[in-house]
Amino acid sequence: MTVLRTRVAIVGAGPAGLLLSHLLARAGIASVLLDSRSRQEIETTIRAGILEQGTVEILGEIPGSRVHSVGRRHDGIELAFDGEGHRIDFAGLVGRGVWLYPQHEVLRDLVAARLADGQDLRFGVTVEGVEGADTAAPGVLATDAEGRPLRLEAEVVVGADGSHSIVRRSVWGGHAAGMFREYPYAWFGILCEAPPSAEELIYSRSADGFALISQRSPTIQRMYFQCDPDLDPASMSDAQIWDTLQRRVPGTTLHEGAIIQRDVLRFRSFVASDLRRGRVVIVGDAAHTVPPTGAKGMNLAVADVVLLAEALEASLTRADERPFDAFAERALRRIWKAQHFSWWMTSMLHVAPGQSEFDARRALGELRTVAESEAGRTYLAEGYTGWPLG
Ligand code: PHB
Fold first, then answer.
1. What is the pLDDT of residues 303-338, one digit of tens each?
2. Residues with catalytic annotation?
3. 175 — pLDDT class (breaks 50, 70, 90)
4. How do 139-143 and 149-153 pair as beta strands?
5. Among the atoms of ligand 1, which is closest to the Cα of residue 48?
6. Which of 63, 107, 346, 383 could connect to 341 by a Cys-Cys bridge, CB 3.0–4.6 Å?
7. How far apart are CA 104 and CA 115, in angstroms?
8. Where do the domains of the chain lie, and which CATH numbers do they carry?
């Protein structure tokens, strides 16, 4: 058995875990970062694409970050319904924007920066559980990439290990120790080889359901349409996929191209019953998940980590426990705002199976209230570009 000691043990090398190790290192606090996946898998899995302005300000400070050179600023989105598009002008309404910069690019930047900084970052390590959450010396039990047992002892353990978090399960018990809401639909997502079909992202509610026209690069696009959660992604032909997408964004003709990836994304809203127990904390998707409509997932993980890094710096360098004691409550304020925003965007734009005529028309009334009023557009722009951090 290998035994390692560090100040902060971080489980999960996604955006939350990597950014936390960076902010801790900047404060002179050592950490060890473990992930069950390989570096290649972490850096190539296609995930979300939109960064809030505050997220970009933090990531842009990391040495070597390409968020400003490769990422593209978007100053608005198009909200489409009832056959018409309405631009939400973020820059004009709130003086802020978002960046289209895919999560796997964020991860490539962060992994390179952490390794260049000498971070102890171990891939292929399977975490089995956490011991001693209520003691001053919690520990992580794992199996390393060579199959040997590993014990990581620390002053604080952070679970940044995603929605199927082992840390949450091991410390809080049941897999679903928290509050959640299911949705009766999922997203069919594709990556295709085509030029962008519009300058900005299009969020469209049509009579048949929701579609989102997003982007990845000048030659690769990401698009989604609302589907049944049990749909087999292989069951639709390329022609059926394009026909569905074209019908869901009336008024826009999408540039079609080879479909190079397809997947069905199920989603739910979830908030863990507690973010902290003793010296163990959970952040990011381990602590909460949101439906993807508001593009809040990765941004919320970054917001958790900014607060947690401040709290750990106070606790571990000045023995001031107050920020750590206040962490969960402070983080939860933003988490519930983001939960509401994501639920609101989702329910307003999707057509629930069997939705009554009344509810369908009410949703159009809601969209019209947002699009035709400056107060409504500002509300959307504030939430989408992100509330102030910290
Ligand atoms: C994406 O590009 O993957 C994306 C963009 C905006 C969203 C969700 C996903 O709201």
1. 999 999 999 999 999 999 999 999 999 999 999 999
2. 74, 203, 292, 296, 384
3. low
4. antiparallel
5. 3
6. 383
7. 16
8. 2-57+103-179+269-345 (3.50.50.60)
> Looking at this protein, which amino acid is placed at residue 313?
E
Token pair listed for 326: 């206040």
Distance (Å, rounded) from C-alpha 309 to C-alpha 175?
26
Pocket test for ligand 1, best of 72, 104, 214, 343 (most atoms within 8 A of CB): 214
Residue identifier of the C-alpha nearest atom 7 of ligand 1: 295
Q: What is the mean pLDDT of the chain?
A: 97
* Rounded Cα distance, 286 and 206, in Å: 33
- For the CA atoms of 199, 204, 210, 215, the dihedral, rounded to the nearest 10 degrees, stands at 10
CB atoms inside a 10 Å sphere around CB 278: 14
For residues 211-216, give the mean pLDDT. 97
How close is the Cα of 50 to the center of ligand 1, in Å? Answer: 6
Distance 212 CA to ligand 1 centre (A): 8
Residue 46 CA: nearest ligand 1 atom is: 3
The set of protein residues with a Cβ atom below 6 angstroms from ligand 1 is 48-50, 201, 212, 214, 222, 292-293, 295
DSSP notation for 245-266? HHHHSTT-PPPP-EEEEEEEE-
**Alpha-carbon torsion 15, 17, 20, 25, what sign?**
negative
- Ligand 1 atom nearest residue 295's Cα: 10
